[in-house]
Design brief:
Blueprint: E1 2-5, E2 11-17, E3 37-40, E4 43-48, E5 77-81, E6 84-85, E7 88-89, E8 95-99, H1 105-111, E9 112-115, E10 120-126, E11 129-134, E12 143-148, H2 150-154, E13 162-167, E14 174-178, E15 183-186, E16 192-196, E17 208-211, E18 217-221, E19 224-228, E20 238-243, E21 260-266, E22 276-280, E23 284-287, E24 294-301, E25 308-315, H3 319-329, H4 337-341, E26 351-359, E27 361-362, E28 367-370, E29 378-386, E30 389-397, E31 400-407, E32 410-417, E33 422-423, E34 428-431, E35 437-439, E36 445-449, H5 452-456, E37 462-467, E38 470-475, E39 501-507, E40 511-512, E41 516-526, E42 536-542, E43 551-558, E44 565-572, E45 578-586, E46 589-598, E47 606-612, E48 616-618, E49 622-631, E50 641-645, E51 650-653, E52 659-665, E53 675-684, E54 694-701, E55 705-715, E56 718-728, H6 731-735, E57 742-745, E58 750-770, E59 775-795, E60 801-807, E61 813-821, E62 827-835, E63 850-854, E64 866-873, E65 876-877, E66 886-891, E67 895-901, E68 905-909, E69 917-925, E70 930-932, E71 936-939, E72 948-953, E73 963-972, E74 975-976, ...
Parallel strand pairs: 15-21, 23-30, 40-46, 48-54
Antiparallel strand pairs: 1-75, 2-73, 3-4, 4-75, 5-8, 6-7, 8-11, 9-12, 10-11, 12-13, 14-16, 16-19, 17-20, 18-19, 20-21, 22-24, 24-28, 25-26, 25-29, 27-28, 29-30, 31-32, 31-76, 32-33, 32-36, 34-35, 34-37, 37-38, 39-41, 41-44, 42-43, 42-45, 45-46, 47-49, 49-52, 50-51, 50-53, 53-54, 55-56, 56-57, ...
């Protein structure tokens, strides 16, 4: 793989000398145009423009692992590492080379290679022994590869060089634990395991502690130490296990050096089959003064409609005592779900307000409990009991409402005074834990850097809002309620891995032999500081990337070009077959991963080329598919039985020139488009020749008449259908001049319009209680009923168009099928839709009834494009307000900007800093609470960064070892552009072995990145059935 930077003139000549097998060739049949990566015969070229021989063995199969000498058949030499212990070869070890025949230092120096490259000295130990001493230390846990050209040393041996591999020692360490750190639902009869990188460790028991304390005994199973308790662990309990760093190795002074600690949670006790349970919909609820609190409840099990609940109401005497309760809850790790579920508050210091028997009222989806009193301002604990089951919820009574959005960078708290409906100005917002305090501005907003503990997201976090005699505590992450009730997890709106860098990683092939060279091209560029050069390495790994038993096979340090690009060559030797990962590691974080397959394979000796007689045809037309079978250097293969399959099946035999053909008649496409592609595959009929296939495809058009249709709405009850018909000509496609098939408008074309009216008929299915109006309401389901309205046939005018006005009635929608027939009998139809009052709107990922509406036909935005959005309630835009009750928030690796206004419509400029994508959310304050729409992701138009590549060669065909001269030119919109070019040479026969994945740097480099949001939370929410 060569890496070439284009300098002032964006054109470069590349010479490739003598790297092809005798059966290989390079051709320039397929020039690259309008793509960032393309293929010319065996040449793969990658371009980036952003403005911004080591032999490796898998651990455990190294022939000279831990210093044991390699013994190769029919060889007269051995090589032994002289400084070795149970963990491997020491970093400063010398090596003793022994021969059955006389051996001199001069012979060794002239024919020895050490990788990684280090200097070395030699010393004549005896007539047949030479000591080799590296002049610098090797890295820990790395592979040392030493090779010797034996035929040059002894003069009477022919064949491959002798090769040895040694693994340097690594520090005594724990490779993995069982259970893993942070895991939940661990069986109470589970053991505890430590897996070490050696089996020579000392007695482990004196070095282990566990909390809560239990009796432990231990057993050794090779490099795994197993601990268990004679009794069971407790249910729903968080255990912390620590292994002291002073644990050592038998007969060695080395120890672990530092403690190893992990935490796990045991399973909950299993419920009986005939059990009953209930949960509050969330763990926090807030109510204005003067209202009776309503709690939403999920009841399930043997009785999902209990008659009544007993509620005991406790009041916290002070805000400080309420904060003490919050601190007790935040001591539980967020992942410890069983402990959280079983948590009970301490009521000994609380004032009991009263106990109430409350009826359970079944709602449409859940049930509701209403306290018969309106408590005073303050903080409360509510404990509900039903059929022996208890659950609790925290209640706050007060007249200050808030919306909070926490992100990886900044946090926003919007506070409103419910007594005035105005922003709560000069209120303090304090993060409990760090003590960080911010004051709200004249819009009621506190905007500040997110505390570090919220970003690490290990424990529950909260904020306390104070002002004008009001106090409100709100959660800052997901520690106070069922997952996703009010929390929108960062992973949901995010990408993969660290978003700090633009990244790309590409291996020149997907399949390699056990002894081969993996060539890698990649890109790493800091998004905010393009001049920053991080520490970068490429490593080969095997094993699960999510479990600790993953092993690193090889590591290469990387030097970046000024563009942030790099190329690496990683020779591998004697690896076992299987899948391996090539990983891009930046500052010790894996940012990118591509898999490769190691396998013993045989390259095919021939290629099969197939193509249709015409590139495009109409349904019903008959053509020939023609093909050839040749050796890769061009010699035809005659009299080979071939089979073809796809839309048709059959057999054919190649002639004396390796040529073959078979007929094909196209059928009408079942797809909705005017055309589709039909593909046929051709392979050898004799399985002994392998399973290598060739394929060809033809573009099949359903009709020689195409059309466009639009629907507009002059009024709520009128839909205007417009159709424009076009002639379809295939001459341009078949000549290779264009992909365009429309050849002007078509007049006097009959168009059929079939209309079906759709209504949804309401059917009563039961009742539910409406808490707002305090009455029973009917519950309904809706049945879809269709009413055919007939078919209208109209003819296009001289401009190829026609119009039809369709009247509509309220609460109805319409299915409209538009179809045409061509003179040859071919037909084409589409189905579209209309409805009374206007077109359908797709409101993605609605949060309740509020949604963010935008232009869904826009697929990508250029820099400085305007993004228009509005907040809708159902299908209607929310009316503008006198007070500023709407907020629009822009996220890009954190909250970047917010705007509060009185209009429900907003325009955002897609700034350069928002490449490759920006998220937006709308928030509406209705006078009591805040409604947050779901986020929408607006993506950068990647085509704006696409370059055109032109590649030409000085010849069409080359002899082995002949120089290949390529001229590569890069342009953008016809103008030369300097860029970095990657040229990869791959034997063409490889692509007959496997499907090569598309090379798409742009989509990888400009992949979506995370919003950076941690969560949003709105206080004073209505129960779901009421909002």
């Amino acid at each position: 793989m060569e890496d070439t930077k284009l300098s002032q003139q964006p054109s470069v000549k590349v010479s490739l000398i003598g790297r092809l097998r005798r059966s290989g060739f390079i051709s320039n049949k397929s020039p690259l145009k309008n793509i960032v990566v393309g293929t010319v015969g065996l040449i793969i070229v990658g371009v980036l423009s952003i403005h911004g021989y080591n032999l490796f063995f898998q651990k455990g199969i190294v022939p000279s692992f831990n210093g044991t000498p390699v013994v190769l058949p029919e060889t007269t030499m051995t090589l032994v590492a002289e400084s070795v212990d149970v963990l491997g070869v020491n970093y400063d070890s010398s090596f003793l080379l022994s021969s059955k025949e006389p051996l001199t230092t001069e012979q060794v120096i002239s024919n020895l290679t050490i990788k990684p490259d280090v200097g070395y000295t030699t010393h004549q130990v005896s007539e047949s022994e030479v000591r080799i001493k590296p002049t610098e230390n090797f890295e820990s846990n790395s592979i040392i590869n030493i090779s010797l050209r034996e035929e040059e040393v002894l003069g009477d041996h022919t064949g491959a060089p002798l090769e040895w591999a040694f693994q340097t020692k690594e520090s005594f360490k724990v490779l993995s634990t069982l259970p893993r750190n942070g895991v939940t639902n661990v069986p109470v009869d589970s053991g505890i395991e430590f897996v070490f990188n050696t089996d020579k460790y000392n007695d482990i028991l004196p070095h282990v502690s566990i909390s809560p304390s239990v009796e432990l005994v231990w057993e050794q199973h090779k490099n795994t130490a197993v601990l268990y308790t004679p009794d069971l662990l407790e249910f729903a309990t968080v255990y912390t296990v620590t292994l002291s760093g002073d644990l050592g190795i038998e007969g060695e002074s080395q120890t672990l050096g530092q403690d190893v600690t992990f935490v796990f949670e045991t399973e909950s006790k299993q419920q009986e089959n005939n059990y009953y349970n209930f949960d509050f919909a969330k763990q926090f609820t807030e109510i204005p003064t003067g209202e009776q609190p309503v709690f939403e409840v999920y009841a399930y099990g043997r009785d999902n409609n209990p008659e009544e609940f007993t509620i005991t109401l406790y009041q916290y005497p002070t805000t400080e005592s309420f904060i003490t309760e919050m601190n007790a809850r935040r001591s539980i790790p967020l992942w410890a779900s069983a402990t959280t579920d079983s948590y009970t508050s301490n009521t000994s210091q609380l004032r009991e307000v009263g106990t109430f028997v409350v009826p359970y009222v079944k709602g449409e989806y859940t049930g509701f409990l209403t306290l018969p009193i309106a408590p005073d301002r303050g903080q409360y604990l509510v404990i509900a009991e039903s059929q022996g089951v208890q659950e609790e919820i925290l209640l706050q009574i007060g007249n200050v409402s808030s919306f909070i959005s926490t992100s990886d960078t900044t946090t926003l708290v919007w506070v409103q005074d419910l007594t005035t409906g105005n922003p709560a100005v000069d209120y303090s917002v304090e993060h409990i834990g760090s003590g960080q305090v911010t004051t709200t501005d004249n819009q009621g907003v506190a905007y500040f850097d997110t505390p570090e503990s919220l970003i690490t997201n290990e424990y529950a976090e909260y904020f306390i809002i104070k002002g004008n005699g009001e106090v409100l505590v709100v959660p800052g992450n997901g520690g106070f309620g069922p997952e996703n009730y009010y929390q929108y997890s960062n992973w949901y709106y995010g990408g993969f891995g660290d978003d700090t860098y633009y990244t790309y990683l590409y291996a020149d092939r997907r399949m390699y032999l056990p002894t081969d060279t993996i060539r890698v091209w990649g890109i790493i560029k800091h998004r905010d500081d393009p001049s920053y050069k991080p520490t970068v390495k490429v490593q080969i790994t095997r094993g699960s990337s999510y479990l600790s038993e993953q092993s690193v096979i090889a590591t290469n340090n990387v030097e970046l070009s000024s563009f942030g690009g790099f190329t690496e060559e990683i020779p591998v030797s004697k690896l076992t077959s299987g899948l391996y990962d090539v990983e891009l590691v930046v500052d010790d974080i894996v940012l990118k991963r591509e898999y490769v397959q190691i396998e013993r394979y045989e390259k095919p000796s021939y290629s099969i080329d197939v193509k249709p007689q015409s590139k495009a045809i109409f349904a019903g037309d008959a053509i020939l598919f023609e093909g050839s079978i040749n050796l890769f250097e061009g010699t035809p293969v005659r009299d080979i039985n071939l089979k073809y399959n796809g839309d048709i099946d059959g057999t054919v035999t190649s002639d004396e020139n390796g040529l073959f053909s078979f007929p094909y008649t196209a059928e009408k496409s079942s797809s909705n488009g005017i055309y589709e592609y039909d593909t046929l595959y051709v392979g050898p009929g004799d399985s002994e020749l392998g399973e290598y296939q060739g394929s060809g495809r033809v573009q099949v058009f359903n009709s020689s008449v195409d059309f466009d249709s639009t629907i507009t709405y002059p009024s709520d009850d009128l839909a205007q259908i417009a159709v424009t018909a076009y002639e379809v000509s295939l001459d341009g496609i078949n000549s290779g001049k264009t992909n365009e098939y429309r050849n002007g408008v078509r007049s006097n074309q009959e168009v059929s319009i079939t209309i079906t009216e759709v209504e949804y008929v309401k059917r009563e299915v039961g009742e539910y209680y409406d808490f707002i109006n305090k009455i029973m309401q009917k519950k309904y389901e809706y049945d879809r009923v269709t009413h055919p309205k007939g078919t209208i046939v109209k003819t296009t005018d001289t401009s190829g168009t026609l119009d039809y006005d369709m009247e509509m009635i309220p609460d109805r929608s319409y299915e409209i099928e538009i179809s045409v027939k061509d003179p040859q009998g071919g037909d084409y139809e589409i189905k579209t839709y209309a409805r009374y009052g206007g077109s359908y709107r797709t409101t993605h990922l609605r949060n309740g009834k509020y949604s963010l509406v935008y232009d869904e036909n826009k697929s990508g935005y250029s820099i400085n494009n305007v993004v228009d959005v509005s907040i809708y309630n159902g299908d209607a835009r929310l009316p503008d307000t006198e007070k500023a009750q709407f907020m629009f928030m822009e996220y890009h690796r954190g909250l970047k900007k917010y705007t509060i206004q009185s209009s429900s419509s907003y325009s955002m400029v897609f700034e350069s800093t928002y490449v490759p994508n920006v998220f937006m959310r709308g928030v509406y304050f209705d006078g009591r609470t805040f409604f947050a729409t779901s986020m929408h992701n607006f993506e950068f138009n990647q085509k704006d960064r696409e370059l055109d590549i032109s590649v030409t060669s000085n010849k069409n065909m080359y002899q082995p070892k002949e120089s290949v001269d390529l001229t590569i030119t890069t342009t953008k919109n016809g103008s030369p552009v300097p860029a970095e070019v990657n040229v990869s040479v791959v034997d063409e026969a490889m692509f007959a072995l496997y499907y090569d994945l598309p090379v798409t740097p742009l989509s990888d480099i400009y992949r979506n990145i995370s919003s950076g949001e941690i969560q949003v939370y709105s206080s004073h929410q209505y129960p779901k059935d009421l909002s």
